[in-house]
Amino acid sequence: MEPDSGRLINLGDLAAVVDSVDWLEAWHEAPAEEEWIAWPLLPAGRTISLYGEAKSGKSLLALELVGCIATGRQFLGQPVARHRVLYIDCENSLHRDVIPRLSAMGFEPDDLDNLVYLPYPEIPKLDTEAGGRAVMSIL
Fold first, then answer.
1. Using CA atoms, how far apart are residues 116 and 118, in angstroms rounded to an integer?
2. 107, 71 contact by CB (below 8 A)
């Protein structure tokens, strides 16, 4: 694959890394029990999207969620699986928004060792090889 072709993988090689579903097998196997990082909002191994009108509280919700995950503190009164969290933020000011909000939520600096916060990082487009490499190096 040529460098930075805009693709993370050569489409011709896709069959070597992706197995298609065996429908007969899948149809008859029992689904695994859903595992939650933070019920009822964040299931393990799945993707979620927060969307809504501007100033409706999406950033506040996301910040409290990641704070709770990083500390193992309850979220919405429910237990949370404690994990290390990478939060890439391209819209909030660290000193005007994030720190005052975390403080108001009851978090202290010593609580946040598991929260890796990157404000306005310079990352190439994520649908390019360079973007993929940048995120992998951050991780």
1. 7
2. yes
pTM of the model: 0.76
pLDDT tens per residue, range 41-95: 999 999 899 999 999 999 999 999 999 999 999 999 999 999 999 999 999 999 9
Concatenating the DSSP letter of every residue in 66-135 gives HHHHHHT--BTTB-B----EEEEESSS-IIIIIHHHHHHTT--GGGGTTEEEEES-----TTSHHHHHHH
Is residue 130 within 8 Å of 100, Cβ to Cβ? no
- The neighbour count for residue 132, using CB atoms within 10 Å, is 17
Which residue in this structure is represented by tokens 């919700």? 61
